[in-house]
Design a protein that fits this description.
The protein has 360 residues and is mainly beta. The chain contains 1 helix and 32 strands. A 4-stranded antiparallel β-sheet has the order 1-32-29-28, with no helix packed on it. Strands 2-3-4-5 form a 4-stranded antiparallel β-sheet, with no helix packed on it. A hairpin with a 2-residue loop joins strand 14 and strand 15. The longest helix has 22 residues. The chain is globular, with a radius of gyration of 20 Å.
């Protein structure tokens, strides 16, 4: 009898374990037409033009992963023709770690940093509005606090928030607000968490989630100690008081903290902020960690369920990736554009996966 009860208990435990096992399976992922060139740390955005979706890639770094490989290239993907089209190069110098947001009929392109042949890195204050129909760039009021590796979020089809990021010599803890209608910067607010760069996040309605990134935890032997953060923050925006955000620290996401993951808010399968790939090793633009070891990309996908107020593990992707500057949505799936794979290797590959119908 004892053996029977033991067998039933084991069978029940196994039966309960099966759904979780299925959810940990590899997610279905397909390759879309690749970028015309390998690009990583490229700013990505999306728009709807005449009711049809378009995807965009700006700037980034090429296959050589050095200063000479930093690009000014810009591309548009038209799903109707299933092709990428070359657009006019972004004004100014090539740069990486820029942020792009599609809003209305325009794409707003923020900051980034340049790298000289001697290795000097400079954060740029530039803000451009790109018109995809006219194929023109218009300079707008520069950022009050120049940032790269920031998180850019669009709100109410009018405002763009830049949360934290790197400013030449250190991170900034400011949340900068840009009003795209008045074309002016509003007073910045303070981010409550540790100031970071290379973090990721998304927004849906009036709710946002920011996770991960890297901060400077002092120095060792004359070198800065770049440390990975696993902190996650939830923010609720106040429609009646523009610029006001109520913040609350969340439980850490499943798995390690993430650096340069792809993220966005989506209504696919509910209301989630989704985080894809990234790495748990802080590194510079070449994919080599500040500790001298090669950064290894992650293949896991996790999401914060805004309705249930909990983290969900969505599964693993067939190919791990990192060095992303955003996640896009197309035809019921989520899309990464370029990035770095194991090696590190800069890739032109564009991949789309469909969220699982069940989560845990």
């Amino acid at each position: 009898m004892v053996q029977a009860r033991s067998w039933r208990s084991c069978w029940l435990a196994f039966a309960l374990w099966l759904p979780a096992l299925a959810l940990a399976d590899t997610l279905a992922q397909v390759a879309l037409p690749p970028l015309p060139q390998p690009l990583s740390n490229n700013a990505v955005a999306q728009l709807s033009i005449a009711g049809r979706p378009r995807l965009y890639s700006f700037l980034g770094i090429g296959a050589a992963r050095n200063a000479a490989a930093i690009s000014r290239s810009a591309y548009e993907f038209d799903p109707d023709t299933n092709r990428w089209h070359l657009m006019p190069a972004v004004l100014g110098s090539g740069r990486l770690a820029s942020s792009a947001i599609g809003l209305g009929r325009s794409i707003f392109l923020f900051g980034g940093y340049t790298v000289s042949s001697a290795g000097a890195e400079v954060t740029t204050p530039d803000l451009f509005r790109f018109d995809p129909l006219q194929q023109t760039y218009e300079p707008l009021a520069p950022m009050p606090i120049p940032v790269d590796d920031s998180v850019a979020l669009a709100w109410q089809d009018r405002y763009i928030l830049l949360v934290s990021g790197w400013n030449n010599v250190d991170n900034t803890d400011q949340v900068q607000w840009f009003d795209t209608v008045r074309e002016q910067w509003l007073p910045a607010k303070t981010f409550p968490g540790t100031a970071v760069f290379g973090h990721a996040g998304g927004i849906l309605d009036n709710e946002l989630v920011i996770c991960g990134g890297v901060y400077v935890a002092g120095s060792r032997n004359g070198k800065r100690d770049y440390t990975l953060s696993d902190a996650c923050w939830y923010g609720k925006l106040d429609e009646k008081q523009i610029g006001s955000i109520s913040w609350k620290q969340l439980a850490t996401m499943p798995g390690p903290g993430r650096y340069r993951a792809a993220a966005m808010g989506t209504r696919l399968r509910g209301r989630h902020i989704v985080f894809v790939g990234g790495t748990d090793t802080p590194y510079n633009f070449d994919g080599i960690g500040y500790n001298g070891r090669t950064a290894e990309p992650l293949d896991t996908v996790v999401a914060y369920n805004l309705n249930a107020r909990r983290w969900e593990e969505w599964g693993r992707l067939p190919t791990a990736g990192m060095d992303f500057r955003g996640l896009l949505e197309l035809n019921g799936g989520l899309v990464t554009v370029g990035g770095m794979e194991k090696g590190p290797k800069v890739t032109p590959v564009v991949r789309r996966f469909v969220p699982p119908s069940r989560r845990h």
